[in-house]
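pls design
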């Protein structure tokens, strides 16, 4: 992947310390982070923190000869793939809206042709002030994106709108913008994730051990490579990813309905969800009380989603098996006319459920069975998407 450069503008909001974590997460994602701090920001957090995290110089003044960028606002503006102002104060947003360029950050924003993304953070009254709202409206009209602000506890101790958005949300939106030129740009991909819950009564359900981590990794990786992603997710404890259309479902029938709705516009469908094969025939309307003897639960077969939804150009299935891994994966691939099956062994000590890694075999119609080493689920997601990209190219 080509080098990606983000210019991170940090302004004088008390949330400036959270920008250090944001810089760290961007750096961990393989992005070169060039930090520009306003003078007010340096009163709240030190430039050395950003330099230590990013490994790159931090710019605070218009002309710093020790910095490799001799004319800061021009060179940084041209270098940037995205300019991310986080946190952004009302003052800086007002200057940006008016085209005022009286410091390094505002000069850089004015000089760039790169996308600009703003994450505001301020007191509720400042955010709701008509002047601030006019600045936001003007900036939006110019194509500048916003993340937040969120509602929550503020530095003043009150609760209201103006809180700095969660770092994963800002990171996800920045990665979505960076991915616009990726190898999946223009492709529409539907990913299913997590397990389903089939109700027994209003309290109990039949479920499985799926955490949803693999599906979320696939959705985020596809987003970062430029795809327009719809994530159909069963119940999970994972945070909602930014820059992705998320459809939350509960049961197998809910998931089928959501995927049927999304499939006609999709270029690829990746079914990583652990969908229940059976569901109770007649869920009780009231909580079932404990009895003295056995209770019989009648189950019926749920619809097979991949067998039902066949009109998508590229379809990828997952096979979780306790035995005969490759043989069962090949059978699934043939029966459902799939383009690829990701097979993984479950049930042992190395079961992938809930873990951060997975060891799989990629099975395709040619009879090939590519055994992959144990990878993080994000690394595995990119390996799967490499195959999806090849299949899309072939179509």
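designed seq:
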């Amino acid at each position: 992947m080509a080098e990606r450069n983000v210019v991170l503008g940090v302004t004088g909001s008390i949330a400036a310390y959270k920008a250090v974590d944001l810089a760290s997460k961007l750096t961990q994602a393989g992005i070169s982070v060039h930090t520009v701090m306003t003078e007010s920001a340096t009163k709240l957090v030190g430039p050395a923190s950003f330099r230590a995290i990013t490994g790159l110089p931090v710019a605070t003044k218009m002309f710093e000869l020790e910095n490799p960028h001799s004319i800061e606002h021009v060179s940084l503006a041209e270098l940037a793939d995205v300019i991310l102002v986080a946190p952004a104060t009302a003052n800086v947003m007002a200057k940006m809206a008016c085209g005022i360029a009286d410091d390094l950050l505002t000069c850089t924003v004015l000089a760039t042709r790169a996308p600009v993304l703003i994450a505001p953070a301020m007191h509720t009254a400042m955010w709701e002030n008509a002047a601030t709202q006019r600045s936001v409206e003007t900036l939006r009209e110019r194509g500048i994106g916003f993340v937040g602000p969120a509602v929550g506890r503020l530095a003043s101790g009150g609760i209201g709108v103006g809180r700095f958005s969660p770092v994963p949300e800002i990171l996800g939106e920045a990665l979505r913008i960076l991915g616009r030129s990726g190898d999946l740009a223009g492709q529409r991909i539907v990913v299913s994730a997590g397990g389903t819950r089939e109700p027994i009564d209003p309290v109990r359900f039949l479920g499985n051990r799926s955490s949803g981590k693999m599906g979320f990794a696939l959705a985020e990786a596809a987003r970062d490579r430029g795809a327009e992603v719809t994530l159909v997710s069963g119940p999970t404890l994972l945070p909602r990813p930014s820059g992705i259309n998320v459809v939350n479902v509960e049961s197998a029938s809910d998931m089928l309905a959501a995927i049927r709705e999304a499939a006609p516009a999709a270029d690829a469908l990746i079914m990583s969800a652990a969908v229940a094969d059976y569901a109770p025939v007649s869920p009780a309307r009231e909580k079932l009380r404990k009895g003295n003897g056995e209770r019989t639960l009648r189950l019926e077969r749920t619809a097979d989603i991949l067998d039902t939804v066949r009109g998508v150009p590229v379809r990828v299935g997952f096979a979780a098996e306790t035995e005969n891994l490759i043989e069962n994966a090949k059978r699934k691939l043939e029966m459902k006319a799939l383009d690829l099956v990701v097979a993984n062994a479950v049930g042992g000590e190395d079961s992938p459920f809930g873990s951060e890694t997975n060891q799989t075999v990629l099975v395709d119609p040619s009879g090939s069975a590519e055994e992959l080493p144990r990878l993080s689920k994000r690394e595995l997601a990119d390996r799967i998407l490499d195959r999806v990209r090849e299949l899309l190219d072939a179509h």
